[in-house]
Amino acid sequence: MLGGTMRIKYKSPEEIRLMREASLVVAEILEVVAENVAPGASTWDLDRIAAAEIERHKVQSAFLGYYGYPAVLCTSVNEVIVHGIPRRDVVLAEGDIISIDFGVFKHGFCGDSARTLPVGAIADDKQKLVDTTRESLDHAIDLCVSGNRLGDIGAAVQKHAELNGYSVVRTFVGHGIGRAMHEDPPVPNYGRAHTGKRLKSGLVIAIEPMLNAGAHEVEVLDDNWTAVTQDRRLSAHFEHTIAILDEGPWVLSRPDSRPGYPAHQPAPHPRQ
User: How far is it, in rounded angstroms, from Cα 82 to Cα 266?
Assistant: First the structure.
């Protein structure tokens, strides 16, 4: 996946503006879903809320039907890393954590974002994993500057994760994004700084660190979607869509972001 010839599609200012619109819809709908994360809610309930919001905004789900995926959200609880399928019998309990991944198309362009949320009050070790994963994404965003390299992004995530005692999932990586949800280049969450493709203005990528409390190995369940930690320890996941501009990174899926706005900002914790 990481080899071969890359065909990177750099975006014009107008295309980035349209991607910003799509990404803001993603952020708004994710916020509505987040407000309904509570003990007793099923992951199917959350998916139906997101589906109703998609219809209200008159946008298209990026997930539903993608290689046969059956829902508009990925809802990944506790040891589920990514691609958890919403189900009526997966009911959230106090103390769980849930990663919600979501994307839409608007004006022919995709926005994609994910966040891990607490279900009620959670233990300190769970909160640390969630916080560290979000922080690792911020560190990576800070390096989305023309002239840096893709390896700088992965190295930033890996360093922050490992300094805090966590492992980085290697089976799944971030990606370029635009008229398709997944475009070149792949954006690993691990690697060596100062290596890889050089970043330049007009590149739009989705960075999505997945950090595990235990080992990095992954197991995909029999539904061929749900990816869990092999050791069944906890995992957390955050994602933003970022445009690289001459003035610095623009986090398209963060409503209060502006071009060049620093990633390390006071966030409306715990929802952003």
Answer: 27
- The domain spans of the chain are 13-251
- The radius of gyration computed from the CA coordinates of the chain, to the nearest angstrom, equals 17
pLDDT in tens, 171-221: 999 999 999 999 999 999 999 999 999 999 999 999 999 999 999 999 999
Q: Are 109 and 22 in contact (CB under 8 A)?
A: yes
Q: What is the pLDDT of residues 37-46, one digit of tens each?
A: 999 999 999 9
- For residues 189 and 99, what is the distance between their CA atoms, to the nearest angstrom? 17
C-alpha separations of 120 from 37, 47, 185, 264, 268 in Å: 8, 19, 37, 25, 17
24, burial (CB in 10 Å: exposed 0-12, middle 13-18, buried 19+): middle
What residue ranges in the chain does DSSP mark as E strands? Answer: 60-61, 73-77, 80-82, 97-106, 109-118, 167-168, 174-176, 183-187, 204-207, 210-212, 218-220, 227-229, 235-237, 240-245, 248-251
φ, ψ of residue 243 in degrees (nearest 5): -100, 135
State the average pLDDT for the chain: 94
How many beta carbons lie within 10 A of that of residue 266, not counting itself?
7
Topology (CATH level 3) of domain 13-251 = Creatine Amidinohydrolase (3.90.230)
Contact 227, 101 (CB under 8 A): no
Q: What is the mean pLDDT of residues 132-149?
A: 97
